[in-house]
Model the fold of this input.
Amino acid sequence: MIYDAVVVGSGFSAIATVCNLIELMPSSASIAVVGDDPGFGRGTAYRTELHLHRLNVPAGRMSLYPDRPNDFADWLRARERTLGAGDFASRQDYGLYIRDSLAELLRHKKPRCRVDVIKAKATGCVERYGAVLGFQLDNGNEIAGRNVVLCLGVGNAKLPVDLSHLSAPARSHVIENPWRLSWLRRVQAADSVCILGSGLTMIDQVLALSAHGFTGAVTVLSRRGLAPLSHVRAPKPALDIDIAALPTRMSLLLHTLRAEGRDADDWRQVLDGLRPQTKALWQRLPVEERRRFLRHALPWWNIHRHRVAPDVFARFDAMVRSGQVSIRAGYLLDVEETDRLTLHYRRRGTSEVVSLGADWIVNCTGMERAGLAHSPLLNEMHRQGLIDADPLGLGIAVDSGSRIVHDKSSAPAIYAVGALTAGQFWEITAVPDIRVQAQKVAQSIAETVM
Ligand SMILES: Cc1cc2nc3c(=O)[nH]c(=O)nc-3n(C[C@H](O)[C@H](O)[C@H](O)COP(=O)(O)OP(=O)(O)OC[C@H]3O[C@@H](n4cnc5c(N)ncnc54)[C@H](O)[C@@H]3O)c2cc1C
Done:
């Protein structure tokens, strides 16, 4: 069967796109959503079962629908999940909300278009009759659509060093995918853990270790040793920032923003003022300045921009202060198999090589902006000339409507939603941005389906 729309992926971007398509498409239309996530709809971020893993965006900004901002807050209220001012909901609840929202539409929206939810991985694709794209699935089936929306996320970053020389038992102590929390059951309370990467994923893992009764030492190693900063319970109003007046040379831009931050009562007001305009600011920057930003300013941007809930920060900070968690800045060179694992790294800003023993190594280098490399499906589509990488290698090249640009006249309509489109939009990793993009893409598709 040829669907009017095939959505590939099973995280937030896919579900937001599907929910909007269901709302907008005529009852004669058909949609398939294909995803391999066991917790269909929750993706990487919201499948956690630990209640202490919190959202880093207030509930009032996490509705699935940009034009119904209270949807998530109402869902929480209806389930008597009361949140105090400045509290952040759990990511587990958010995952349930996404799944409930889709289930609700499937149950109650009548009449509605046909929706097939297919639990499978799309492994390859083939262009058929010009304007139809077919996908091979790992369950042996094939599906095809006139419109395709790629919602594949960006994948997990690979470890920065080659570990093929380690024996199998040693390798089993290297956790490459920390999202599967089952590894925590194998850790002894007094083991030592080295976490690579010092972003939000690292904080998740430290809190998860602590919740499992871990009392050993955690060493965090990242190139700059910068960890996320905290939201405040009573934020001051965002500053009004005129982005047209900001310089487009990266060094001057950063200088100006730092000065604004120093002059403000709280530097967060500057970031909060920029937030709704980041996309527009990014699009004003020449490609070379965007490249400079990625090379020099990204770690600083991340820790100031992607902040953690105050109580999450307080727990983490207490572990740092007690000495249980230590953060080091350095460049990992090698991992050696000794009686346990020994990491060798170059201390930042020096040529000194430091050795560090650990029972476990956990890869928290984060979601990789790996371009197309992380996904066999994207590689295959690229090979067939169906998609292209964006000039910065962040993901897929799309136009301002999130549609893949082709020079062929009868090519299938392929869209991408989520962080894969960072080359065009930059700030497209969090719900407040993705939900707007998903709605626009659904509108563009619905306009073509009678
Ligand atoms: C730990 C964490 C916490 C976060 N917290 C917040 C927060 O509090 N607030 C916020 O706004 N944002 C948060 N984010 C950002 C988050 O990335 C987005 O909110 C959103 O979840 C991204 O969803 P996605 O669907 O684009 O990607 P993903 O969640 O990565 O989902 C992609 C899905 O596609 C599937 N897939 C991939 N390839 C194929 C294929 N070939 N065939 C079929 N399926 C495939 C994958 O299995 C996966 O399920 C967080 C992110 C992380 C990682």
